[in-house]
Structures are given as structure tokens and as C-alpha cells.
Amino acid sequence: MEQKVALLHGNYYHIYNRGNNGIDVFLENENYYHFLRLYAKYIEPIADTYAWCLLKNHFHILIRIKDKSEINESDLTYSTTEKPKVIEPSRQFSHLFNAYTQAINKRHKRTGSLFEKNFERKLVTTESYFQKLIFYIHNNPVHHGFVKQMNLYPWSSFESVVSEKPTLLKRNEVLNLYGNKEDFIYYHSQQQNTNEILEVLIES
Predict the structure, then answer these.
(1) How far apart, in whole angstroms, are the C-alpha atoms of residue 40 and residue 33?
(2) How far apart are CA 63 and CA 48, in angstroms?
(3) Which of the four pLDDT bands, split at 50, 70 and 90, describes residue 83?
(4) Dist. CA 9–CA 90, nearest whole Å
(5) What are the respective helix, strand and coil percentages of the chain, to the nearest 5?
(6) Cα gap 75→52, rounded to integer Å
(7) Which helix (H) or strand (E) holds 181?
(8) How far apart are the first and last CA of the chain?
(9) How many CA atoms lie within 13 A of 192 on its CB side?
């Protein structure tokens, strides 16, 4: 079995997963909302989020696992009643996927696994890759033919980055990475070479 990269405190990761055997994991609008609510419950206490996109049968998220000193343990929610001795970011993601699967199975009267067993995680180590990855995540709905322009897709962080509305997304850090909002929008309006990202995804 392939050994997955550990989620270490202070590191940046591209997290993604898809439906088991490619099945849809988001069947109606309420499913997207519920996933985001569970994400806020299980993941936001342990990670900073820089970009995300939810599609019918898969999702992409770009995060930084917070340092231990940044995590307020009282904010954490576990799927078990017993508080673990050690905070494990990977386990928090497992709680998210398990809780979402249980909700979908109950709502849509289905049984069994919903996601692929082990979610993918790729370490992000360079600013250039970070920039291209944000573009790749926001461009995913365009790439898959759901919309013609990424700003028209409702289930990604693109609009949160360019709007003025309150957000838990690390908006300022994202904008500063490109220069400012205008530079961010311009970068996303151009076709970027994402072969480096695609090669990593294919290898997984």
C-alpha cells in the first residue's frame, strides 16, 4: 500500500479526493452547503484555507496546517466522545469525510463508502507552485466544462477572494501572492501552464 504524506504542522498541502469509483459526492445544492459546514467544524480549527473548489464527484483544497501553538483545542470537534491525546490533522479530515458520508447516506438512502478510501495530499513547497495551484483549483470547473468562466461557478473560493464580504479564507495572503486584486484577476484571466500540477496528480 502506498504510504501517504504525513500532514505536518506548519506545512502547506493540496488536499483532494473523489467519489468512490468516480461516483458523484454532491447530488444537490444542499450537499455542497453541508460539506462546507462540516469543513468549518472539523478543519478550520486546525488549518488555514487558501483555495477550494467542490465539483460533482471530487474536490480540491489548498491549506496550511496550523502550528500547534495556533490551535485552540476548545474549538476542535471530534467524531468520538473521547478527546485524543494528540491532535492529528489527518484524523480531522477523516472525521469530516465520515460525517459527510453518514449525512449523504441518510439523506439519499444509500449505504457504503462515498469517497475513495485514502484522501490525496501533496506537499506544496514553492511560491510558484502555490500560485499555479490556486489558479488550477479555481479553473477546475472551466476545465471540466461546468462553466465558461471561473467566476461563474458558485462552489469555489474565487468569489471569496475578489469580494469584500467577510471570509475565513486567507484572502489577503492570496491577493498579496499575486500583488493585488487586479493582478489576481488578471492572472486568472490568462491561460496558465499547469502541467507541473497535472503530473503530480497523475502520479498519485
Answers:
(1) 11
(2) 5
(3) low
(4) 11
(5) 45, 15, 40
(6) 22
(7) helix 181-189
(8) 12
(9) 24
